[in-house]
TrEMBL record:
Coiled-coil regions listed in the entry: none
Listed SUPFAM superfamilies: Nucleotidyltransferase (SSF81301)
Pfam families on file: PolyA_pol (PF01743)
Record-linked InterPro entries: NT_sf (IPR043519), PolA_pol_head_dom (IPR002646), tRNA_CCA-adding_enzyme (IPR050124)
Enzyme Commission code: 2.7.7.72
Poly A polymerase head domain ranges (all copies): 3-122
GO biological process: tRNA processing
Transmembrane segments: none
One GO molecular-function entry: CCA tRNA nucleotidyltransferase activity
Protein name: Multifunctional CCA protein
Keywords attached to this entry: ATP-binding, Magnesium, Metal-binding, Nucleotide-binding, Nucleotidyltransferase, RNA-binding, Transferase, tRNA processing
Length: 151
């Protein structure tokens, strides 16, 4: 079982900004394993768990496949075989697809750090087409100037 800090917390930390919200992803585990370690499941339909010590939310690594309309039409796979890279690529932008492990090492398979340094917003998945509401979060990103690259 491996645990990673992911998403906006990693981005903000690299920018030297205060981290307001920590998102954690757990790779190589099952719901049963987390429950046996004292984690408390938050919802019955989605494997998100509260850490018994910090009360922060930890989600099992997952892949998503669009299955219907809107932001709820997804089929998710939470298998313990899902890799960190598979979980990260389902995110919207390269700058949100980075992770830090428990040793402080940055995992950046999609070059988000380079894009962050160059103030580039580059999408890495069909997330904006699958969930158009995501675009409303862009103005909240802590970037002075941006270049949006759409492929």
């Amino acid at each position: 079982m491996e645990i990673y800090l992911v998403g906006g917390a990693v981005r903000d930390q690299l920018l030297g900004l205060p981290v307001k919200d920590r998102d954690w992803v757990v790779v190589g585990a099952t719901a049963e394993r987390l429950l046996s370690k004292g984690y408390q499941q938050v919802g019955k339909d989605f494997p998100v768990f509260l850490n018994p010590n910090t009360k922060e939310e930890y989600a099992l690594a997952r892949t998503e496949r669009k299955s219907g309309k809107g932001y709820t039409g997804f089929i998710c796979d939470f298998s313990p075989n899902i890799t960190l890279e598979q979980d990260l690529i389902r995110r919207d932008l390269t700058i949100n697809a980075m992770a830090i492990d428990d040793q402080g090492n940055l995992h950046d398979p999609y070059h988000g750090k380079s894009d962050l340094d160059n103030r580039i917003l580059r999408h890495i998945s069909p997330a904006f087409a699958e969930d158009p509401l995501r675009v409303y979060a862009l103005p909240a990103l802590p970037l002075v100037s941006i270049i949006l690259i759409l492929k």
